[in-house]
């Protein structure tokens, strides 16, 4: 059977989808030696993937995401290779995809945060983009043979927003937390001491202003405390960085390499997950794998993924977050409990398990 994987996000430039795609492909190589795999990559990440399994072949598909070439030329390439089953890790499935396909849905964020604050586009273009998003995702869900949701929360969200989709069409497959097990940290000598940490993008739903407000209040008591915000230097990251450029204790780090990121993780005092909405919440569970205490917003998906291994707070209340930070810094028993329970919780999520479940679905569909 010929299986195609849209791996144009492969690598760490996009920490979320990039990490997901990279580990999915790498672990599939170790899992499935029966099917023939075609890994579609862009020019920028083509050299970053070198198959170790003879049944895996990389194919250049240098088509921009959400672009016209993706809609026209990508389906032609899939057809020319006679792919039996495609798997897309994102909702942007080309309309004329000629094969059966599986799609992964990570979240439905634009359904809940469709405000102009979340985009650089003018109102008319944004409205068109938003309507286009809904049409594309609706079609992807309808036409797919199987939908992968990264959490039960996301599955239920899909069923709520698309009531015609049958529940048995959706399979929940969790992401993994063990990416850094084989990554050697840099142990950088110039790293900042005594810091709390956030990793992710700076979109409005990530709720970074609440984090910053809480941090400022916490520094009135903990004078040496710093805040590290790690993300990709896009419009939203630059915006919040500029708004806080006078805050010397808030340090912004742009897309560090994995070795440096491992060092940043392991030396944090606390990891903060302040988001108003998530589909999974990978950085929080990765922080737990480093035995870092996690404070997370009191939202449904974090309760599902983190269980009782995190300290939860009302994401609309900076004072509640400040108190949670202070509680961990002052209570060594609580800190140690969160470290131990967090590590145990993180060990439930393995990229290898994800790949095995993916392979089972492929074999069922072909």
Could you walk me through the main structural features you see in this protein, from its secondary elements to its overall organization?
Helix 1 crosses helix 14, helix 7 (208-218) packs across helix 12 and helix 10 (282-289) packs across helix 13. The protein has 366 residues and is of the alpha/beta class. The strands form 2 sheets. It has a 7-stranded parallel sheet with strand order 3-2-1-4-5-6-7, with helices on both faces. It has a 6-stranded parallel sheet with strand order 10-9-8-11-12-13, with helices on both faces. It folds into 2 domains: 2-176 and 350-365, Rossmann fold; 180-346, 3-Layer(aba) Sandwich (Rossmann fold). The mean pLDDT is 92. Helix content is 43%, strand content 16%. The chain has helices at 15-31, 43-46, 68-80, 109-112, 123-143, 152-161, 208-218, 235-243, 258-266, 282-289, 300-306, 318-330, 332-346, 351-365; strands at 2-6, 36-41, 56-60, 85-88, 100-105, 146-149, 170-172, 195-199, 226-231, 250-254, 270-273, 294-297, 311-313. The chain contains 14 helices and 13 strands.
